[in-house]
Design goal:
The chain is α+β, with helices and mostly antiparallel strands. It has 4 domains: 1-42; 73-263, Penicillin binding protein transpeptidase fold (Orthogonal Bundle), CATH 1.10.3810; 340-606, DD-peptidase/beta-lactamase superfamily (Beta-lactamase); 620-682, no CATH class. The protein has a 5-stranded mixed β-sheet with strand order 2-1-5-14-15, with helices on one face. A 5-stranded antiparallel β-sheet has the order 7-6-18-17-16, sandwiched between helices. A hairpin with a 6-residue loop joins strand 6 and strand 7 (337-341). Helix 4 (127-136) crosses helix 6 and helix 17 (424-434) packs across helix 18. The protein is elongated, with a radius of gyration of 38 Å. Residues 107-115, 117-123 and 661-684 have low confidence and may be disordered. It comes from Salinibacillus aidingensis.
Amino acid sequence: MEQRRRRTRTRKRKQWIIYSVISAFMLFLLGIGSVFLFSYLQGPPSLTSQQNTVLYSADEEVIGVKHGNQSRYWVPLEEVSPDLKQAFLTTEDDEFYDHFGFDFTRIFAAIGKNIINMDKVEGASTITQQYARNLFLTHEKSWSRKIKEALYALRLEMFYDKDKILEGYLNTIYFGHGNYGVEAASRFYFDKHANELTVAEAAMLAGIPKGPSYYSPIRHPENARERQETILHLMAKKGDITQNELDKALQEKLAFAEEDEREGKQIAPYFQDAVMNEASQLLSISRKELKTGGYKIYTTLNKDMQKSLKQTSVQEIDEASKIQVGALSLDPKTGGIQALVGGRDFEESQYNRALQAKRMAGSTFKPFLYYGALEKGATPGTPLESEPTKFKLANGKVYAPTNYNNYYANDEITLAQALALSDNIYAVKTHMYYKPETLVENARKFGIQSELPAVPALALGSASVSVLEMARGYGMLANGGKAVHPHTITKITDSSGTVLYKRDKPSAKQVLDPNTSFVLTDLMTGMFDTSLNDYSRVTGAAIKDQLTREYAGKTGSTDKDSWMIGFSPQVVTAVWTGYDNNKDITKVEEYRYARNIWADHMETIHKDLPEREFKPPEGVTAVAMDPHTGKLAHSGCDDRRVTYFLEGTEPKNYCTVHVPNPEETDENKQRKKDGRSIWDWIGF
C-alpha cells in the first residue's frame, strides 16, 4: 500500500515536472511570440538621423558642407569600398548575413569569458544591435538599454534587408573627431571618398570605432597602426584578402589629410551664408534643422567668377587699410548670383556688406533718373546749363548742389555728357523738372525696395540702398528691361535625391520699355568714351585702357562711399567700398578701389565668355551726334559719337559750331553723296 502511494507520488511529481516544463516552454514561446508580435505591430523603425547638408556650385561641385556638432554624410552601400565593408564584417560580425539580429554562439561565448575573467572583457553585439544603438539609444550600460536595443534590433531585422541594415550601420558609426559614418571618416582622415580607399586605409578606419579616441591615427598613431595590423591579419586568416594583399597593405605608408583638408576648405563663405538663409526660408525650417537635415543644395555660384572677385578684392585693397568691400556678380537673364564678397574676412566679421548693408548710392542712382527723363521726352542730345545753381524749395529753403571739385562747364552740355561726366547740376535740374516723385516711381520699377525720400538730393543718390538692389536694377538694363529676381539656389533635394524645391524658369515679364532701356544702356557706355570729355574727363577714363569689351556702367561716390556698377550683356557686377563706421574716405587711392576691382574682375571673367554686344531693338535709331551740341555731327566736328535715340527723337539738324574740313578729299565727298559717311563713323 505504502509502495503504491509512493509510486503515485512519484508519478504525480513527474507529471508536475513535465507539465511545468511544458508550461514554462509554452510561456517562453508565448513570450517570444509576444515580443515578435509587439515588434511587428510597432512597424518599421525610422532610419533617419542627422546628416551633413552639402552645398554645390552651378557645375555641381561641392563648395561647402554644413553640420552641427557632428559631421555626417549618407552614402549608398554600393558607394562604399568593398574592402571597407569586408573589414567591418570581419571585425564586428562575420556571421552578419546568417543570423536574425543576434549571434547566440557569440553571446554564450562572451558570457563564459566574462564569467571566467570576472569582468566584461568581450562583447557580443551584432552589427544590427550596434546600428540600433547608434540610431535610437545612448551607450549607457544598463539592462533597460539592452532590452530596448534588442527590440529595436528585432524590428530592424523584420522590416529591412541585410544590405539596408549594413548601409545604415556604416553611415552612423562614430569615428572620432566629430565624424559619423564611413564617408565623413574617409574625407576627414584621408581626404577621399569611401569608395576610393585602399585595403590598408579600410583596415585603419575599421579599427577606429572600437575606441575612437584611443585608436585615432591623429592622436595615437601607434595604437591605430597596431589595431590596423590586427584587422589585416584577421582578414587574411579568414580568406578575405590574399597573402600578397596582406603584405602590400602592411607595407603601405598611409597619407593622412593635412589639417586644412581635415577642417574642410569652404569656398565663398559669405555666399554660403546667404544660401543657408535662403534655403531656410524656402523650406520653412530653422538653420539648425537645415544644417543637420542631409539636404543637397544646388546653387548659382560660378567658382571661377568667385575666385576672380575675391582675388581682385584682395589684390586691389591695401592690406593695412581698414576699408571694407561688398561686391557681387549676377546673371541678368536668370538673376542667379554668380559671385559674392560680403567683406574682407568672414572669420573676422560675418556681416554681409553686399546684402545686408545699406549705403548712399551716390551717382550710381542717376541712370534711374535718366530712364524716367527719356520716357518723358528727353533725348541723349537734350542740352542744359552746367553751372553753379541754387534751387529754391517749396518750404523756402535753398538747395545748392555742387559738382565734383566744383568743376562746371559754365555752358550747355548734353544728357550724354552729363551721364558720362556725372554732372550733378544737370541731374538735379532734370530731377526737379520732372518732379522728385517721378524718380521714386522709376526706382521702384528697377526693383529698389529701400526707403526713398522724394527730395532734390535723391537725384544724387542720397538714399541708402544695398549692393544687391543696385545690381538688380542694372541687371534689368542689361537684359532689355525684363524683371530680375536675384537668388542663390536652383534646387534642393533630401539625402535620397527627392526634389524638395526647384526654381522655375526666369520670368520673361517686361517691366521697362526695351527701347528706352537700350538708349540708356548706350548712354552708360559713354563713361568709357573720351569723345564725351568736356570740362572734365569721363568717369571711366582711368580704367578705359584696361577694358577689351564693351561695357555699360556708372561710378558713384559720397564722402563715405565709393561705387562702381557696370555690365555686359552676360554679367552685372556691383562693387562698393567704404568704412563700417561711416568714416570719411580721405585718400584718393581708396576712392579708386571700387573701379579697379570692377575692371579687373570683369576683364578676368569675360576671357572665357563669347564676345557679345548690346543689341539694339527695332524701335531705336543710330546717328552720329556731336556730343557737345546734341546735333548731327559732320566731318568738321572734332568729336562725334554714334548715339542711339528713340525712333523719331533723333536730331535733324547738323552742328554749326564747327566748320567742315576745307581739305576734304573728293573720295570723302563722294561717300557723303552716296550716303555712306555714317558707316565710316561707326567703323565699317
